[in-house]
Amino acid sequence: MKWSKSKLRSVIVIAVALLALAGIANASPTQWTASFGSPVWDTHYSLDLTNLVPNYVPGVDSLTSAFFSLDYTNSGNNNNGTATFEVFVNNVITGTVNFSKPSENVLLPLPAATLSDLSTNGMIDFYFHRAPGSHEFDIQTAVFVVNGSHEESAPVPEPGTMMLLGAGFLGLAVCGKRRRNNA
Questions:
Q1: Domain that holds residue 103
Q2: What is the CATH number of the domain that holds 76?
Q3: Which pLDDT tens digit goes with each residue over 92-101?
Q4: How confident is the model at residue 155 (pLDDT cuts 50, 70, 90)?
Q5: Distance CA 125, CA 132 (A)
Q6: What does DSSP say about strands 92-99 and 45-48: parallel, antiparallel, or unpaired?
Q7: How many whole angstroms from its chain centre is CA 6?
Q8: Rounded-to-10 torsion of CA 18, 20, 21, 24
Q9: Is residue 171 part of a domain?
């Protein structure tokens, strides 16, 4: 079987293309979570997503949603009352939660503008503020959850693998040269 120059070039181009595709990073669905235990009212908290595992990389990883998961209890005697508290993110009110049951878990999603800020810088500052008349309700646990995709970097080939690949290409070149000389 005689290989023409164009056929040999096409085989080399395909081999190089396959090697290039093997080095592409792949994105995997990821959920970043941070728990704050029992947060203190009107105390500012800061969260840096880049410190969570897997590390968030602003501008590379993408975020699809973010929310607070809050467990609260009514610590007073008013089991029929309602309570309101506000969540401020980056000093802008993000949402209001109304409590009416003795205990409950509520989810407070972040709006798109806040999610955009979070995806740009990976930082979020927040605090919980009780509305007047809501002092009998306490947050037992606060969990901040962010959903998105984390870009996994492609593994770096070992030097031995690259040498083996180079030896294969060298062997192809030598075979091609011998065929040209014999023809």
A1: 28-152
A2: 2.60.120.230
A3: 777 777 766 7
A4: low
A5: 23
A6: unpaired
A7: 45
A8: 160
A9: no
Structural domains counted in the chain? 1
Buried b / exposed e along 138-171 (16+ C-beta atoms within 10 A):
bbeebbbbbebebeeeeeeeeeeeeeeeeeeeee
Residue 6 in domain: no
- For residue 19, give Cα distances in angstroms to 7, 10, 162, 163: 19, 14, 11, 14
CB neighbourhood size of 175 (10 A): 12
Question: Would residue 174 count as lying in a domain?
Answer: no
> Alpha-carbon distance 92 to 62, whole Å?
23
Residue 55 tokens read as: 């590390």
The residue whose two tokens read 């009514």 is 74
Nearest alpha carbon to residue 146 among 64, 38, 88: 64
Question: What sign does the CA torsion over 52, 54, 57, 61 have?
Answer: negative
pLDDT of residue 70 exceeding 70, the answer is yes
What is the C-alpha separation between 76 and 82, in angstroms, rounded? 12
- Give the bridge partners for 152, in sequence order: 26
Find out whether 74 and 139 touch, Cβ atoms under 8 Å: no
